[in-house]
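Quick one, tokens below. Sequence please?
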């Protein structure tokens, strides 16, 4: 990786740099709605998209243009700017003391950029990456002081660079740049995060803002006709399918790492997950003492209950559980009794939440994180329900309680205990 092919121009953070992770999935669907999903690309590609600052100096704008023209065909070393961290002390030989690397894309096999300014920057190779320190293979040649930045790099695929420059006047220009990493360099993530699960499938781990919520009803039928002219209709499948578009906000790096880990496991649209129906949270009808029957307000829950949609997420303070319900029955007082297969712990009215879990898959193969700052990002997600696959998943249930217990997470080179808590919203 040559220094002359290093893209050191810093993006304009007011334009929300984008860091993306992309798979490709082929989907085959039958008339009844059954789906077969195949990962056309087993590993993901990184992508970086950002807008370059307006150039007040004519020569600098031309320098960016010339750089792209010279190196686009051979690939460019591009800093992953949203992943940057800062040195908290002057470099001591090959030892760098830095802000936390947890949840960021640092690894011993990924080069880094030591960046003080555009005139003082150089490449280095990490030997050991710890939470607050990085040991380089060789000491940097330049002097890097506290406040200098350390940024992981990606090597772009040849001809994957997209760029445009708009001249605002004779001396000022602005531009946008997009890069995609070579597929061979994008295998796996250098960190992992704990994901709650039920029946072996993850539950979407972060709060979301629901933008649209649609249900489609379809019925597949066959018309039978005898020789005498008599006809009969045989219904093969009655299908109610949910589709939704949501926006997920990552309030910190823990959220970013969790979301990337979750998406990596889905491989785009290839795999299923459970989605909490946040738009349909249920309200308790009084405090619930420990038992198998939970009383909730209104009769909508009974109307929406089906054998398929029979899994509920129950959050009680710091703990949360997935439970499979046996029935949901409207009562004479206008409320609903939900009967679960196993005991539900005590719940305080107004202080807890209960909602259904939907079996879903993504309708996208690319997770695009828009960064407001180095620690905060958001993304739009589109997903669709899989009504014909509930029975397959629920029949594999070994423990009907489906309790989500304490979880462990290993991120980069450290591990710690997580309590069973839904991550807080932004």
């Amino acid at each position: 990786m040559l220094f002359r092919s290093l893209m050191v121009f810093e993006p304009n953070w007011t334009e929300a740099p984008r860091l993306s992770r992309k798979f490709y999935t082929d989907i085959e669907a039958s008339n009844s709605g059954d789906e077969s999903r195949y990962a056309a690309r087993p590993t993901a590609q990184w992508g970086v998209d950002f807008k370059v600052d307006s150039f007040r100096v004519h020569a600098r704008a031309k320098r960016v243009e010339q750089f792209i023209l010279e190196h686009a065909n051979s690939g460019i070393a591009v800093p992953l700017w949203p992943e940057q961290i800062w040195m908290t002390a002057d470099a001591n030989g090959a030892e760098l003391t830095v802000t936390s690397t947890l949840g960021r894309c640092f690894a011993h096999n990924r080069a880094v950029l030591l960046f003080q300014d555009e005139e003082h920057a150089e490449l280095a190779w990490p030997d050991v990456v710890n939470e607050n320190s990085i040991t380089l293979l060789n000491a940097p040649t330049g002097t890097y002081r506290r406040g200098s930045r350390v940024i992981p790099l990606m090597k772009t695929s040849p001809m994957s660079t997209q760029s445009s420059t708009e001249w605002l006047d004779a001396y000022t220009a602005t531009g946008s740049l997009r890069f995609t990493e070579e597929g061979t360099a994008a295998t796996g993530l250098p960190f992992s995060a704990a994901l709650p699960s039920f029946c072996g499938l993850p539950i979407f781990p972060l709060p979301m803002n629901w933008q649209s919520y649609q249900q489609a009803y379809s019925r597949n039928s066959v018309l039978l006709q005898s020789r005498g002219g008599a006809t009969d209709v045989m219904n093969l499948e009655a299908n109610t399918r949910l589709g939704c578009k949501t926006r997920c906000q990552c309030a910190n790096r823990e959220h970013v790492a969790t979301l990337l880990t979750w998406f990596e496991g889905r491989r785009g649209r290839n795999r299923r997950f459970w989605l909490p129906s946040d738009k349909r949270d249920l309200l308790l009808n009084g405090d619930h003492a420990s038992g198998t029957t939970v009383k909730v307000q209104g009769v909508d829950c009974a109307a929406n209950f089906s054998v398929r949609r029979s899994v509920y997420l129950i959050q009680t303070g710091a703990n949360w559980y997935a439970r499979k319900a046996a029935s949901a029955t409207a009562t004479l007082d206008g409320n609903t009794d939900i009967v679960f297969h196993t005991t539900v712990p005590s719940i305080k009215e107004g202080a807890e939440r209960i909602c259904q879990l939907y079996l879903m898959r993504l309708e996208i193969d690319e997770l695009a994180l828009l960064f407001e700052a180095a620690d905060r990002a958001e993304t739009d997600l589109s997903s669709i329900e899989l009504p014909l696959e509930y029975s397959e998943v629920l029949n594999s249930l070994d423990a009907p309680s489906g309790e989500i217990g304490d979880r462990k997470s290993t991120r980069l080179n450290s591990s710690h205990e997580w309590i069973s808590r839904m991550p807080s919203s932004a």
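Helices lie at 58-71, 253-266, 300-304, 390-395. The longest strand covers residues 35-55.
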